[in-house]
Here is the input.
Amino acid sequence: MIARQVIETGTSIVLPEYRDSRAKQVKGKCFKEDFLVAAKPSTILLDSANKEASFGKCVVDVMSKVGNFTFVIYFTHPNRPLPSELHTPYSRQCGILEIKLDDTYHLFTCDKVSGTWQLDRLKNYLQHDVESKVWVFHPRYAQFECIMCQYQWQVTYT
Here is the structure.
């Protein structure tokens, strides 16, 4: 709940790169193609961030607009897994990011470290830590799925 509170409209967030791969077996041989969906880490600005917003059939922690796309953040930890509905969003014009809060305990172990308060450390972590972030869905993914389907068709019939 605290993580939701520190994300505000106008907050910038560093996003991780997004790589995926597809494997296909053709005539007894396995082919694997790796592809880059989202470029190297980039930064976005969350405009009009809504907390605990309804997205499809589930409630997400943060939902915002980034350009023409809906951007969703869902915080996870061992007792709060990612809802399966987010893996197949109703709209392909969205980005869905999971932020794992598993390793945030160290942010709260002392009251003040080098002039920074706990909430400031959490906000900094949410904004800048790339290792805790995982793309669940990226709007460019549909384009790459189509390209990969064409590639697999060519491999099958060539």
